[in-house]
């Protein structure tokens, strides 16, 4: 399993709606509103890096109200 944190910036006032929609997407472990330079942080997983990429590009990027994302894969050193 490959996991990543996805940091999301949203349009003003859209963070809660974005996190609720993303929280229902298969492969998303958790979606939470936060303060700071990002509005929502998501923990997601996929079987492979390609699966995770498809989740981010094909499902998460399609959520209305998102302006930017940054995907940070979890590494085990």
Keywords:
77 residues, alpha+beta, Alpha-Beta Plaits, four-stranded antiparallel beta sheet, Dimeric_a/b-barrel, Lrp/AsnC ligand binding domain-containing protein, Tscrpt_reg_AsnC/Lrp_C
Describe this structure in words.
The protein has 2 helices and 4 strands, in the order E-H-E-E-H-E. The model has no long low-confidence stretch (mean pLDDT 96). It has a single domain, classed as 2-Layer Sandwich (Alpha-Beta Plaits). Helices cover 27% and strands 39% of the residues. It starts with a strand and ends with a strand. A 4-stranded antiparallel beta sheet has the order 2-3-1-4. By secondary structure, the protein is an alpha+beta fold.
What is the N-to-C order of secondary-structure elements (H for helix, E for strand)? EHEEHE
CATH topology call: Alpha-Beta Plaits
Calculate the mean pLDDT score and round it.
96
| Portion in helices | 25-40%
The value of Rg in angstroms is: 12 Å
Low-confidence stretches: none
Q: Give the N-to-C terminal Cα separation.
A: 15 Å
> What is the overall silhouette?
globular
Strand content: 35-45%
| CATH class group | Alpha Beta
- Placed side by side, the strands forming the largest sheet appear as 2-3-1-4
Number of domains: 1
Please name the fourth-level CATH homologous superfamily: Lrp/AsnC effector binding domain/regulation of amino acid metabolism (RAM) domain
> Pairing-aware structural class of the strands and helices?
alpha+beta
- Distinct helical segment count: 2
Oligomer: single chain
């Amino acid at each position: 399993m490959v996991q990543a944190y996805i940091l999301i910036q949203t349009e003003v006032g859209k963070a809660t709606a974005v996190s609720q929609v993303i929280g229902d997407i298969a492969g998303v472990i958790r979606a939470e509103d936060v303060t700071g330079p990002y509005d929502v942080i998501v923990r997601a997983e996929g079987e492979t890096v390609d699966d995770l990429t498809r989740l981010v590009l094909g499902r998460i990027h399609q959520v209305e109200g998102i302006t930017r994302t940054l995907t940070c894969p979890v590494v085990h050193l």
